[in-house]
């Protein structure tokens, strides 16, 4: 019985490690052309501004407002991704779904900023902004391919 619980616990930890590592690899991958900036400008997303504020060491008091701004961008961006045509089911790929789940996990970490520390909360917000940049790039890429077709 104890060995079964141990195996399940280790398997869960390895799955969590794999998930985090995969999400970070996806975020580090670069596409041939970056459409995130044009998509952000066209749709009024603020994740670029939030990212620059976080890199400039935004004060701890401003982190909740920055998180709310990222959450607003996330809701709008996922709505657009889900409702655009594509070959994927509902327009969202598995990679994008993984990043969405990671966004929710980082949202929880940043919300617990008081307990996990300001630097960890800031890092979580930076990762959330990176996820939005990646998703906006995918959205811009779709828009560009649709306009070419």
Outline the structure in words.
- The structure is a single chain.
- The protein has 149 residues and is mainly alpha-helical.
- It has one domain (2-148).
- The chain is built from 7 helices and no strands.
- It has helices spanning 2-28, 36-43, 47-55, 63-82, 94-111, 113-116, 118-148.
- α1 (2-28) packs across α5 (94-111) and α4 (63-82) runs parallel beside α7.
- The longest helix has 31 residues, at 118-148.
- It starts with a helix and ends with a helix.
Could you outline the blueprint of secondary structure elements for this entry?
Elements: H1 2-28, H2 36-43, H3 47-55, H4 63-82, H5 94-111, H6 113-116, H7 118-148
Helix pairs in contact: 1-5, 2-7, 3-7, 4-5, 4-7, 5-7
Distance between the termini: 59 Å
Count all strands and give the number. Answer: 0
Report the average pLDDT across residues.
Answer: 86
The 3D shape can be described as globular
**Overall helicity:** over 70%
Query: How much strand content do the residues show?
Result: under 5%
Q: How are helices and strands ordered from N to C?
A: HHHHHHH
Biggest β-sheet, characterized?
none
Number of helices: 7
Instruction: Please state the oligomeric state of the protein chains shown.
Output: single chain
Helix-strand makeup class: mainly alpha
Question: How many structurally independent domains?
Answer: 1
As residue ranges, the low-confidence spans are none
Q: What Rg do the Cα atoms give?
A: 17 Å
């Amino acid at each position: 019985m104890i060995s079964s619980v141990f195996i399940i616990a280790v398997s869960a930890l390895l799955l969590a490690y794999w998930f985090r590592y995969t999400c970070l690899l996806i975020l580090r991958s670069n596409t041939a052309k970056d459409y995130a900036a044009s998509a952000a400008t066209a749709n009024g997303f603020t994740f670029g501004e939030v990212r620059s504020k976080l890199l400039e060491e935004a004060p701890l008091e401003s982190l909740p407002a920055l998180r709310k701004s990222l959450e607003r961008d996330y809701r709008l961006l996922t709505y657009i991704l889900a409702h655009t045509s594509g070959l994927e089911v509902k327009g969202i790929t598995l990679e994008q779904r993984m990043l969405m789940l990671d966004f929710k996990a980082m949202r929880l970490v940043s919300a617990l900023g008081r307990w996990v520390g300001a630097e960890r909360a800031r890092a979580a917000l930076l990762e959330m902004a990176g996820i939005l940049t990646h998703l906006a790039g995918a959205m811009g890429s779709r828009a560009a391919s649709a306009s070419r077709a």
